[in-house]
Structures are given as structure tokens and as C-alpha cells.
Design goal:
two-stranded antiparallel sheet, 8-stranded parallel barrel, TIM Barrel, 37% helix
Length: 248
Amino acid sequence: MTTQVIPAIDLRQGRVVRLRQGDYAQQTNFDVDPAVLAGQYRDSGATWLHVVDLDGARDGGFANLAYIEAIAKAGLKLQAGGGVRDAAGIERLLGLGVARVVVGSIAVREPDTVSGWLARFGPERLTIALDTRWREGAWQLPHAGWTEQAGATLEVLAPLFAKAGAVHLLCTDIDRDGMMAGPNLALYQRLAALAPGLQVQASGGVRSAADVAAVAAAGIAGVIVGRALLQGSLALADAFVAAGGVEA
């Protein structure tokens, strides 16, 4: 199986940024137009792009729709989210050309609602985001841009969404996000055991082609790569080779 490499663009007030461990006070800005960057990733062989509206993720609603629409015109299949709180939000993003809408905070707060959306929109149009950090002996699930703590755990919600028909599950190890510390392979192997039917996307900590190769060797369906590409420690072409090739 070829692990799908998905470059990421995080947006805040229209700028390409990266946070450290989801901390909005630890932001690095990158001086590049998001639509131009998307085009560069496309020209390097990417077929999918992951886009996060960080303003929307924290505050709800959409703050970067115009930029997401511009990115969608770059010719990539777009997986995008941040701020989706209702079915109308899903319809709005799909209407802009987004191929898969990421639902995170509401998936943690209202899993039954999101299970209903899987039936309504189809599992190929949604990516469930369960971003997690290890606290008090469990994989906890912070939400609202990782600023609020929920009572739900990964061990409960991953099997629930698998049973509801979900196909795509994005999981970020928050403690490794933006830290260039390597991916948490044990977390993703645990997730595969919890819900073996899900196509898991690993996110957080990828820094090199060796990290991508390790994710692929673990049999994980996809890997999100953000800061390493922006900082130049990993070339997208090398990531594709490490993952076993380019997958449409």
C-alpha cells in the first residue's frame, strides 16, 4: 500500500502560518501567498492538499473563505476545515470546490450529529479529525482550536465513528504538532487497533523522508506534512519516494 502524502497549509488572517503544539501565541509566519504555495505543491506532484482555517477552528465560523476558494482553484483535491459547526458549513465548503470537509470540534462535542452527517453527505465527503494529547492516562480530545478540553477520549470516539461508517480519520498528536520531533507511530498503531476499518491520516512531528518512510512502513494510509516543507527540511518529491510513490 502506498501511503498518501498530503501537504498542509494553515491559514490565519489570510497568511500561511504554523503553530507550535496548537498554541496561537507561538506562531511562525511564512511569506508566501497561499494559492501560490498550493500551486507549487501541485507542480511538485501533490494531488491532495490539507487546509486549516485556524481562526475558524478557534472561534467558529469561517474567517478565510476567500483564501480557501482561491486555493481550491489551484487544481488540487482539497481537504479543508476549521470552523465547521453545522451542515450549512459543510455545504458551503463543498460549494467552494472542497472535496472532503474536515470536522473536528463538533465531532468531539456532538458525535451523534456528525454520525448523521456521514449518512447525509457520504463518508467520502467528510474527514473526522480527532486531535489528541496524552493526559491523565488517556488520549484526551481538546477542541475549539485545541483551546478547550472535552470529556471524550480517542478510545471511545474512534470506534464510534468507524461503526457509523466513517472512512477518513485525521489524528494529530498535539504535543508533537509543529515540533519537528517525529511522528508518534505508537499512537497510530493504537488507533488502527481501535478502529481497523478507518483510513488514518497521521499528523504532527514529521520532519524528514525517514519519518515518512516510517509512517508508510507502519501501514498508515496517509501522512500530513506541514512545517517540514515550509522550512525546507523535507522536499515533497522526497516525501513521495519515501511513501512508496504518488497516489491519486
